[in-house]
């Protein structure tokens, strides 16, 4: 069985069919690994992996930062969570373009989502190609951002949602001393440059808060334009993976009174290329 790889109508992303991720041999894995680097986002419809199969597949990419968690708006009492819970705001935050774990000392290499329960409408995941965005910048903007870095903090992005400061320790919230990361990242495999931005980024040293926010907003607005973005409308059993070293992602809003349950696995970055500095 040779996988069929259908590129999306965008600078990133492909849909992969004629493949069984639960029973990958090394030759097929190598096709997946190459396609992951080439397209940045791979969507595998109808895989229906179980927990162990998803973990086994993602372990091929490297050490796992998050082995398995549910990105879900359903609480332990089987009811959808309400907006007085921090978990609700973690989900709503995912509607903003971001890079997984950019607010932790070691940002993520790859992420995986698979759909268990999906709402009637909305709840698509979208991705934006930050290498294509960097390539499309004019020389003046490239010159302006060369050598600049930004802090990345989930405390910052959480408060930007209009939420009061959070002092608990869910989802990496306890980490203080925000990591500092260059705005331009070089991909460790392709050596292509990309914009390393998103909702957790703020506070560019050498700029005022307002100048920094304006520049980051301008870059994000330019970067996440249609031909550099692609999305997926989920059916239960679908699985997607993406390369956090060159793409941003977000979830589209949906009716939060309907259940949406996604299974998430996250592969740790490589300390040689994904470790942040500090101020
Ligand atoms: C994530 C994430 C988006 C989604 O799991 O890191 O951002 O579509 N999820 O649920
Ligand atoms: Mn995410």
Q: Averaged pLDDT, please?
A: 96
The main sheet orders its strands as 1-2-3-13-5-15-4
Structural class: alpha+beta
Q: What helical percentage do the residues reach?
A: 25-40%
The backbone outline, from C-alpha atoms, is globular
The number of strands is: 15
Instruction: Determine the N-to-C terminus distance.
Output: 51 Å
Hetero groups: N-oxalylglycine, manganese (II) ion
Number of helices: 8
Fraction in beta strands: 25-35%
- Main pleated sheet: 7 strands, mixed
Low-confidence stretches: none
Gyration radius (Cα, Å) is 18 Å
Q: What's the SSE pattern?
A: EEHEHEHEEHHEHEEEEHEEEEH
Structure characteristics:
alpha+beta, 7-stranded mixed sheet, binds N-oxalylglycine, 279 residues, single chain, 3-stranded antiparallel sheet, binds manganese (II) ion
């Amino acid at each position: 069985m040779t996988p069929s790889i259908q590129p999306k109508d965008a600078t990133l992303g492909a849909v992969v069919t004629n493949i069984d991720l639960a029973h990958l041999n090394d030759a097929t894995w190598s096709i997946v690994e190459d396609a992951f680097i080439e397209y940045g986002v791979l969507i595998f419809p109808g895989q229906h992996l179980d927990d162990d199969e998803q973990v086994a597949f993602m372990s091929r990419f490297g050490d796992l930062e998050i082995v398995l968690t549910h990105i879900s708006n359903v609480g332990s009492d089987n009811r959808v969570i309400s907006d007085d819970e921090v978990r609700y705001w973690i989900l709503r935050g995912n509607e903003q373009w971001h890079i997984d774990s950019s607010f932790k000392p070691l940002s993520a290499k790859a992420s995986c989502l698979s759909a268990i329960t999906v709402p009637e409408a909305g709840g698509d995941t979208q991705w934006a190609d930050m290498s294509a965005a960097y390539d499309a910048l004019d020389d003046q903007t490239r010159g302006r951002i060369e050598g600049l870095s930004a802090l990345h903090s989930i405390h910052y992005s959480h408060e930007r949602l209009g939420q009061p400061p959070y002092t608990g320790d869910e989802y990496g919230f306890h980490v203080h001393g925000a990591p500092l990361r260059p705005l331009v990242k070089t991909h460790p495999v392709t050596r292509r440059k990309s914009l390393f931005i998103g909702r957790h980024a703020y506070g560019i040293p050498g700029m005022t808060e307002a100048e920094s926010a304006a520049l980051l907003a301008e870059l994000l607005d330019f970067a996440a334009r249609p031909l550099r973005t692609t999305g997926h409308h989920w059916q239960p059993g679908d699985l997607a993976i993406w390369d956090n070293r060159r793409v941003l992602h977000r979830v589209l809003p949906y009716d939060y009174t309907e259940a949406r349950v996604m299974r998430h696995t996250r592969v740790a970055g490589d300390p040689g290329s994904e470790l942040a500095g500090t101020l």
